[in-house]
Design goal:
- The structure holds 2 protein chains of 2 kinds.
- Chain A is of the alpha+beta class.
- Chain A has helices at 40-60, 121-130, 146-152, 195-200, 209-216, 247-256, 322-334, 339-345, 347-350, 362-365, 387-401, 447-460, 480-485, 487-499, 502-507, 511-516; strands spanning 3-8, 11-12, 21-22, 25-30, 65-68, 83-86, 93-95, 112-116, 133-134, 168-174, 182-186, 204-207, 224-231, 233-234, 236-246, 281-286, 294-304, 357-361, 376-383, 406-414, 427-435, 465-467.
- In chain A, α5 (209-216) crosses α14 (487-499).
- Chain A is globular.
- A 4-stranded antiparallel sheet of chain B has the order 1-3-4-2.
- Chain B starts with a helix and ends in a 5-residue tail after the last strand.
- Chain B is flat.
- Chain B has one domain.
- By secondary structure, chain B is α+β, with helices and mostly antiparallel strands.
- Classes of the chains: A alpha+beta, B alpha+beta.
- Chain A binds chain B through residues 5, 7, 15, 26, 28, 31, 34, 40, 43, 70-71, 86, 88-89, 91-93, 116, 120, 122-123, 126-127, 313, 367, 372, and chain B through 27-30, 33, 35-36, 42, 44-45, 112-115.
Chain lengths: 523, 115
């Protein structure tokens, strides 16, 4: 049997110290050993029974339950004041066979894999690489669990790919303690798995587009995500370039996405007519405190996989003294005017090296995160056509009402089908400011105040926006979710009500959901 | 007096400079997690095993091998990260005992089990 360790706690924190948040009990479920239960599917189903036992235990105690993975989200989205469950030890992977596929399956079965919730992006990428496959995209690093990624909408900078949730083809959820509370959802319009395979997971089959796309970015509130079926693709290489170009040109590309006719070209990345190729990934770095007319951009192009390519990793990876970052924060809090100077001093640590060229698999290019200490990140999704205007407005705000200890970057992502996915625009520009956490003083505003002002500025200037679910924001801002998603927010709540009993809606709700007004029971 | 102070200063600097850590980490594989850990350093959220001991060697032994066992603390029995610390004291101990006593101060994290 899978076994669960538990510990009474008073508080829990995210990886980046954005809490602490209160909690009463923390669970960790470990799978039965392979020697006692050799078949993966048996261990997977055995774990489902254990999760249902925990859900029942929580229900009987009249408390709430929230699963989390790597704790990478910077808001309280992954926390619960009652009981939390660490999923990271539940990491079974199952390749889907031809016979496991639905008769109308349009996927190549060799690209389909089912991953248990606690698999991290790194683990998944390694499993896929062993099978000659790769994820289509990932976030900027690889530590998030698959369930965490899709629950919050983790994205990379795939112009024509989308976010992590966009290559999910089916979800295995546990929505209660009863035998018919294990369900498998996939879109009716694009079925993937055969009924027999789904039944081998002891799951009830639901083929429904609206429910699937609502559950895809669920904020952890559509039950316990036990397994995720994804579509991978044959392994490929990425060639990464870092260039310094005129800001105007960088934003012209951002606003038009026309790489073919742009004055900016990388000689190696042009077609037979000499026109620029469309990159796989495009990112702009903006130091809002610098009046340099140029900025750094990062472009990546997909290449066929080959055995020999230069090792993308250095032998030695140095990291900055944590005490130095602590000192930076203290100086920033007490002498905010020094922030632009400090950012400039740290630019070699923060920004990639210009003219750097790297080749590697997706899993090598987006490898382990270098810094895991206290950090903040605020990330807005806007239509890419507004990227320059939004950057100017948010940059001005940060200079005039800050300064704030962080710098901006813009990434561009294809539209999602998820009902409340924040990459909702045809090509969404994710404009984000990342930096080190600071405390409010008489001289520098708080992170909450800064977040509120960013929302106000975008609203005042009629720029439609969304906010990354896993990042910092003023989530209490009145009418925020309605403003961002309109009727889609209600659709999402309706689908949740259709799926979960009232009792389970309460059990799987947390403070974050209540704050943003997406808990139908208390709206 | 000034010479003594200078001599002490040099000794202190030598001792401090001779204490350092070296960390080796696999490019692949995830670390065995520990969600109950309170660590706030590089090893946050990881299941870290620390060894701080002195190995007594036989006169006839040239070196030794410390075996990493497969158990609850190291579920895979495979290493992912290892960090050893070299100190002036450990070098001195080995020197004055002619290599019979060897200080071992290491931290390691095992690979997360694959399923």
């Amino acid at each position: 049997m899978a076994n669960t360790k538990s510990k009474l706690l008073s508080e829990w924190d995210t990886l980046h110290n954005n809490g602490p948040f209160t909690v009463k009990l923390l669970y960790q479920t470990k799978l039965e050993g392979e020697r006692l239960m050799p078949k993966k599917i048996d261990r997977y189903n055995d774990a489902a029974i254990e999760i249902q036992r925990l859900i029942n235990e929580t229900r009987q105690a009249g408390e709430g339950f929230r699963a989390y993975g790597s704790a990478w989200s910077l808001s309280n989205i992954a926390s619960h004041k009652d009981r939390m469950h660490y999923n990271g030890s539940m990491n079974i992977s199952i390749p889907i066979q031809d016979t496991d596929c639905h008769q109308n399956c349009s996927f190549d079965h060799t690209n389909l894999f089912m991953f248990q919730c606690g698999n991290t992006i790194k683990e998944i990428s390694e499993t896929l690489a062993e099978n000659g496959k790769s994820l289509k995209t990932s976030g900027a690093s690889n530590g998030q669990t698959i369930a965490g990624c899709i629950s919050t909408g983790v994205h990379g900078a795939g112009l024509d790919i989308g976010s992590v949730q966009d290559y999910v083809v089916g979800l295995n959820l546990i929505v209660g303690p009863n035998s018919d509370d294990i369900i498998y959802i996939e879109p009716e319009s694009k079925p993937a798995l055969h009924d027999n395979f789904i039944q081998s997971l002891n799951s009830r089959i639901i083929r429904n587009d609206d429910l699937f796309y609502a559950a895809l970015v669920s904020l952890g509130s559509f039950g316990f995500i036990h397994g995720v079926v994804i579509e991978a693709e044959p392994v490929f290489l990425i060639k990464r370039y870092v260039k310094k170009i005129n800001k105007q040109l960088a934003f012209e590309l951002a606003n038009t996405m026309d790489f073919k006719n742009s004055a900016f070209k990388i000689p190696e990345e042009t077609d037979a007519q000499g026109n620029g190729k469309r990159p796989f990934h495009y990112k702009i770095f903006i130091n809002q405190y610098s009046d340099d007319p140029n900025c750094i951009i990062e472009l990546m192009y997909k290449k066929p996989y080959r055995e020999s390519y230069p090792d993308p990793f250095p032998i030695i990876k140095e990291s900055i003294y944590r005490d130095l970052i602590h000192l930076f924060v203290k100086i920033a809090e007490n002498f905010p005017k020094s922030i632009p100077w400090l950012v400039k001093r740290l630019r070699n640590t923060i920004l990639p090296e210009v003219n750097e060229e790297t080749t590697g698999m997706l899993k090598e290019i987006f490898w382990d995160a270098p810094y895991q200490g206290p950090a903040f990140a605020c990330s807005f999704g806007i239509d890419h056509k507004h990227s320059e205007k939004a950057m100017n407005l948010l940059g001005k705000l940060t200079r005039d009402e800050g300064p704030i200890p962080g710098i901006f970057a813009l990434r561009f992502v294809k539209q999602t089908k998820a009902t409340i996915g924040f990459t909702k625009f045809p090509i969404t520009c994710m404009i984000e400011i990342d930096g080190v956490l600071w405390k409010k003083t008489r001289k520098i505003m708080s992170l909450e105040e800064y977040n509120r002002r960013m929302i106000e500025v975008l609203k005042e200037n009629d720029i439609p926006f969304t906010i990354h679910w896993g990042k910092n924001s003023d989530w209490e801002f009145p009418g925020l979710v309605k403003h961002m998603y309109g009727n889609k927010a209600e659709e999402w709540m309706t689908q949740r009500e259709n799926l979960l009993s009232s009792e389970m809606q309460t059990l799987f709700s947390n403070k974050f959901l209540n704050t943003i007004g997406l808990n139908a029971l208390i709206v | 007096m000034r010479q003594i102070k200078f001599f002490l200063f040099i000794i202190i600097i030598s001792i401090l400079a001779s204490c350092y850590s070296v960390r080796l980490r696999n490019e692949n594989g995830a670390q065995q997690p520990d969600p109950f850990s309170n660590r706030d350093d590089y090893y946050r959220g990881m299941h870290v095993i620390e060894i701080d001991t002195v190995i007594d060697m036989k006169l006839t032994s040239g070196d030794f091998t410390y075996l990493i066992k497969e158990n609850d603390s190291c579920e895979s029995g495979k290493l992912n990260i290892i960090e050893y610390r070299n100190t002036f004291g450990s070098v001195l101990l080995s020197a004055i005992t002619f290599g019979r006593k060897r200080k071992v101060k290491i931290k390691y994290v095992c690979e997360k089990s694959q399923n």
